[in-house]
Amino acid sequence: MSEVTEELPWHAENWQRLQAARERGRLPHALLITGAEGLGKHRFGIRLAASLLCQSPLEGGKPCGNCKNCHLFQAETHPDYRRIEPEEPGKAIKVDAIREFSAKETLTSQAGGFKVTIIEPADALNIAAANSLLKTLEEPVDWTIMILISSRPGRLPATIRSRCQRYHFATPEQAQSIEWLSQQGVATSPELLLALTSGSPLTALASADSELLAERERMLDEFSAILAKGSDPVAVASRWEKLPFARTLHWFCGWIVDMIRLRSVGEAIDVINPDQRKRFHSLAQEMDLKGLYDLLDRTYEAIRLSGSQLNTQMLLEGLLMTASRRDS
Q1: How confident is the model at residue 1 (pLDDT cuts 50, 70, 90)?
Q2: In what side-by-side order are the strands of the sheet with 81-84?
Q3: What is the DSSP pairing of strand 115-119 with strand 144-150?
C-alpha cells in the first residue's frame, strides 16, 4: 500500500486543506486535481480515496491500512470505489462509462460511508460523456465524492470546471525536488534531470537511467547531423518512431526552445538543456530565427496531434525535414 500511504512533500498543503474541509464536514462533492505531468496527481487521488474509505484513518487522514475497507481497497474490490478511465491509453472516455456511473443505484454507498470515483484523465471525456457527467455534477448525491484528475484542465468544458473545487499542484522548488530525489537513491545529475523534465520530480526519477540519457545523446547527434546535411531525415524519423513519442517530442521541443533563446539573447540566458549549451549555441548560429520559430510552431502542432490517429512517423519526418531545409 506504499503508493497510498506515502505522502509526497509537495502534496502536503493540498492534503491538509482537504482534511481540514473533511473535519468541518465541508468536503466538495467534486474535486478537480490539476498540475503538470510528473507531480503525482494520480497518487494523490488514490491516497485521498483510500483515506475517505478507511474506517479508522490515522492522524492527518492517513489510511490505516489494516481495516476491512483498507484491505478491500488494496485488493481493488471495495464496492464503493471505482475508477473511470479510457479503455485504451490515449483514447476517449465514452458516454457509456459515465451513464453506468451515474445510474442511481451506483451512486448510493453500499458500506454506509463515502462513495468515491476517480475520473482520469478527465480531459479524455468525449463531448457526450462530459454532458452526461455534467448532469450528475448539477445534482450531487450526499457522501458521493468525484475526483477528476487532469494535466490539461483547459480541455474540459467550463461548465464542468465551474462545478468542481480545484486543487492545483505547482512544480515544487528545486531544492525540495533534489532532496526527494536523493532520498529515492538518485545521486547523479539531479539538477540536469529536473531541467530535462520541466522540474517534475516523478518524471525526473523515471528518467534517472544511464541508458535513457545515452539515447538522448544519440538523438542529439542525429539531430545535429541532419542540420549539417549529413543524415537522412526520413531514416532518422524511422528510428525515432520506435521510441516513446511523447518523450521524443518533449525533448525535441526543448532543443528548439534552447536554440531560439541562444540565437536571440546569447549564452548568458538560462536553457532547458544546460549540459548541451555549447552545442545548441553553435547549432543556433547556423539557422535563421524565423526558421527556428517555424520549427517550434510545427513541434507544438505535433504535440497537439499526439494521441490522435495520425501517423507518428510522418509527423517526425515533417519536423526533421523542416529542420534540414533551414539555412542561415
Answers
A1: very low
A2: 81-84, 115-119, 144-150, 30-35, 165-169
A3: parallel
Asked whether the bond before 121 is cis by omega within 30 degrees of 0, the reply is: yes
Within the chain, strands assigned E span 30-35, 81-84, 115-119, 144-150, 165-169
Which long-range contacts (C-beta less than 8 Å, at least 24 apart) are formed by 206-213? Answer: 206/38, 208/181
The Cα–Cα gap between 207 and 299 comes to 22
Torsion sign (Cα): 212, 191, 6, 121: negative
- CA dihedral 100→102→108→111, nearest 10 degrees, is 50
- Predicted TM-score (pTM) of the model is 0.81
- Answer left, alpha or beta for residue 62, where phi above 0 means left and psi between -120 and 50 means alpha: beta
pLDDT in tens, 203-258: 999 888 878 889 999 999 999 999 988 889 999 999 999 999 988 999 999 999 99
Q: How far separated are the first and last CA of the chain, in Å rounded?
A: 56
Distance (Å, whole) CA 235 – CA 225: 12
What grid cell was written down for 298?
Answer: 510545427
pLDDT in tens, 300-328: 998 887 766 568 889 999 999 999 875 44
Structure-derived torsion over alpha carbons of residues 147, 148, 149, 151, reported in degrees to the nearest 10: -150
Report d(CA 296, CA 28) in Å as an integer: 41
